Amino acid sequence: MTNGHLDIIERSAKLFDEVVVAVMINKSKQGMFSIDERMEMLREITGHLPNVRVDSWHGLLVEYCRRNDVAAITKGLRSVSDFDYELQMAQMNRELSGVETLLMSNNPAYGFVSSSLVKEVATYGGDVKNLVPGIVFERLTAKLAERA
What we know:
4 strands, Rossmann fold, 6 helices, 18% strand, alpha/beta
């Protein structure tokens, strides 16, 4: 999770009565943190937001939404290429399930930040402290030290 993700979650929490942060399980991707570790960090990071809960799901996000009465998906946009991709996803999701997608422009301070870029920079010893929440920075640093 980056500060950009947190910004979108916090802004969404002001708009909706309940926000569910869904950690998607993708067996074809090997993340740095396990699903449980990611969920634990997310719960800590969003603990100041009483209307945010964290859950996980294996499968299509729209199926999660359908089964849990989630009416809308909120996504952050950093760039035009994000918009192109997310617009297609939003249209597909609406076609599949009727679930709406709210595309929010990013805070310009985080426009260049992506999880994969943060992970790559941190792996090579770059300072990512100002790009991720403190908890993520601590756990990322510890995880990289374990691997070294």
